[in-house]
Design a protein that fits this description.
By secondary structure, this protein is α+β, with helices and mostly antiparallel strands. The chain has three helices and four strands.
Protein backbone atom coordinates (compact mmCIF):
# COMPACT_ATOMS: atom_id res chain seq x y z
CA UNK A 1 0.00 0.00 0.00
CA UNK A 2 1.21 3.46 -0.88
CA UNK A 3 -0.50 6.74 -0.10
CA UNK A 4 -0.07 9.83 -2.23
CA UNK A 5 -0.39 13.31 -0.75
CA UNK A 6 -1.93 15.86 -3.09
CA UNK A 7 0.02 18.77 -4.55
CA UNK A 8 -1.73 21.19 -2.17
CA UNK A 9 -0.68 19.17 0.93
CA UNK A 10 2.26 20.81 2.67
CA UNK A 11 5.13 18.29 3.04
CA UNK A 12 5.64 19.12 6.74
CA UNK A 13 1.97 18.49 7.50
CA UNK A 14 2.08 15.21 5.58
CA UNK A 15 5.17 14.09 7.51
CA UNK A 16 3.50 15.01 10.81
CA UNK A 17 0.31 13.13 9.83
CA UNK A 18 2.34 10.02 8.96
CA UNK A 19 4.26 10.22 12.23
CA UNK A 20 1.22 10.93 14.43
CA UNK A 21 -0.66 7.94 13.03
CA UNK A 22 2.37 5.66 12.70
CA UNK A 23 1.25 4.72 9.19
CA UNK A 24 2.62 1.30 8.22
CA UNK A 25 3.12 2.28 4.57
CA UNK A 26 4.94 4.85 2.47
CA UNK A 27 3.44 8.22 1.58
CA UNK A 28 4.55 9.85 -1.66
CA UNK A 29 4.30 13.58 -2.32
CA UNK A 30 2.63 14.53 -5.61
CA UNK A 31 4.24 17.96 -5.69
CA UNK A 32 3.22 18.85 -9.25
CA UNK A 33 -0.10 16.97 -9.57
CA UNK A 34 1.26 14.49 -12.12
CA UNK A 35 0.19 11.42 -10.14
CA UNK A 36 -3.33 12.78 -9.59
CA UNK A 37 -3.67 13.47 -13.32
CA UNK A 38 -2.38 9.99 -14.14
CA UNK A 39 -5.18 8.41 -12.13
CA UNK A 40 -8.03 10.25 -13.80
CA UNK A 41 -7.44 13.77 -12.52
CA UNK A 42 -8.10 12.93 -8.86
CA UNK A 43 -9.37 16.00 -7.00
CA UNK A 44 -11.23 14.54 -4.03
CA UNK A 45 -9.51 12.70 -1.22
CA UNK A 46 -9.19 10.26 0.29
CA UNK A 47 -9.16 8.16 -2.86
CA UNK A 48 -7.95 4.57 -2.88
CA UNK A 49 -7.27 2.15 -5.72
CA UNK A 50 -6.98 -1.63 -5.51
CA UNK A 51 -4.81 -3.13 -8.26
CA UNK A 52 -4.44 -6.68 -9.49
CA UNK A 53 -1.08 -8.36 -10.14
CA UNK A 54 -1.00 -6.95 -13.67
CA UNK A 55 -1.45 -3.38 -12.45
CA UNK A 56 -5.08 -3.11 -13.55
CA UNK A 57 -7.45 -1.20 -11.26
CA UNK A 58 -9.87 -3.63 -9.61
CA UNK A 59 -11.76 -1.03 -7.60
CA UNK A 60 -11.63 2.69 -6.94
CA UNK A 61 -12.80 4.00 -3.57
CA UNK A 62 -13.71 7.59 -2.75
CA UNK A 63 -13.73 8.05 1.01
CA UNK A 64 -13.41 5.19 3.42
CA UNK A 65 -13.56 1.84 1.66
CA UNK A 66 -16.11 -0.83 2.45
CA UNK A 67 -13.52 -2.83 4.36
CA UNK A 68 -15.30 -6.19 4.03
CA UNK A 69 -15.53 -5.74 0.27
CA UNK A 70 -11.91 -4.59 0.04
CA UNK A 71 -10.68 -7.60 2.03
CA UNK A 72 -12.75 -9.97 -0.13
CA UNK A 73 -11.41 -8.45 -3.36
CA UNK A 74 -7.87 -8.49 -2.02
CA UNK A 75 -8.19 -12.16 -1.04
CA UNK A 76 -9.51 -13.03 -4.49
CA UNK A 77 -6.79 -10.99 -6.23
CA UNK A 78 -4.07 -12.69 -4.21
CA UNK A 79 -5.43 -16.18 -4.90
CA UNK A 80 -5.77 -15.66 -8.68
CA UNK A 81 -2.72 -16.81 -10.65
CA UNK A 82 -0.67 -14.03 -12.22
Amino acid sequence: MVAVAMSYDHPNRVAQFVQDRALPFKVALDTNGEIARGFGDVRATPMAFLFDRRGQVLRRYLGEPDWAELHALLGKALSDPA
